[in-house]
Amino acid sequence: MSNSLPKIAWIGLGIMGSPMSENLIKAGYQVTGYTLEQEKLDRLAAAGGTAAGSIAEAVRDADVVITMVPASPQVEAIAYGPDGILENAKSGALLIDMSSITPQTSVDLAKAAKDKGIRVLDAPVSGGEAGAVEAVLSIMVGGEQADFDEAKPIFEALGKTIVLCGPHGSGQTVKAANQLIVAVNIQACAEAVVFLEKSGVDLKAALDVLNGGLAGSTVLTRKKDNFLNRDFKPGFRIDLHHKDMGIVTDAARNVGAALPVGAVVAQLVASLRAQGDGGLDHSALLRAVERLSGAQV
């Protein structure tokens, strides 16, 4: 069966990339991966994938190249230049960038790739580490309908809600909106947690009943235990949400949209980072509220 499936190259095996690439292997795809950390390459090989020694080696025979790296500079570093994807992938290949980057970077990449005969989709995801592991990610896509249709079976092995949002860059725009909503939502939950605790209420009981009503959300469901246990082991790091808040505030300025609450939360995320909490999960926005409320964090 695996012979008829497209050969996949996967670049970037981090918190998201590792479980996602493994889900493709489970679905029967041949996956050749490249990343900077040797132990991540070993993990891919142990899961049945093939570790490559370079980007060029990984993408050479691939029908589909998938990238999952932290930000625009990394996407540019792996895509461009003599050792990059565009110079080494075969003409006709499909490049699916699942990183969360600026919409403009995606538009520029699609344009540059077209000259090489390579098609591009921007396909950032939401759902965090748990969503990646469980293959229930929300995948927002920008690009051509025909390329989206071709990539659909691959997306279906990775996620549950898969939507073509418009031309190149549209996936990134929707992802930026997603990150705005998530950050504001976490901030509201964090403020509620501090308020409830200072009021002497049973926090677990309070969060359970709140989550059953209109205040309930996927954010609260996913982050409840982080709040209760003060467990901020990163599923999604503050550093990355800081990057994303920069993307959404910048993109909003460019199109003339005001984000008053988003701008405040962007500053709170930046302050957490300045206080050394950048490596913690974004639910650690709770720490900022605690500090503002006089707690020794």
From TrEMBL:
What Gene Ontology terms for biological process does this UniProt record contain?
glyoxylate metabolic process
Q: Which family does it belong to?
A: Belongs to the HIBADH-related family.
Under the GO molecular function aspect, what terms does this record hold? 2-hydroxy-3-oxopropionate reductase activity; NAD binding; NADP binding
6-phosphogluconate dehydrogenase NADP-binding domain segment(s) = 7-166
Name of the protein described by the UniProt record:
2-hydroxy-3-oxopropionate reductase
Instruction: Spell out the catalytic residues.
Output: 175
Organism of derivation: Streptomyces mexicanus
PANTHER family for this protein: 3-HYDROXYISOBUTYRATE DEHYDROGENASE-LIKE 1, MITOCHONDRIAL-RELATED
Q: Does Isomerase appear among the keywords? A: no
Q: Which Pfam family, any one, appears in the UniProt record? A: NAD_binding_11
User: Which keywords are on file for this protein?
Assistant: NAD, Oxidoreductase
Q: Which residues form the 3-hydroxyisobutyrate dehydrogenase-like NAD-binding domain?
A: 169-288
Task: Name the EC number(s).
Answer: 1.1.1.60
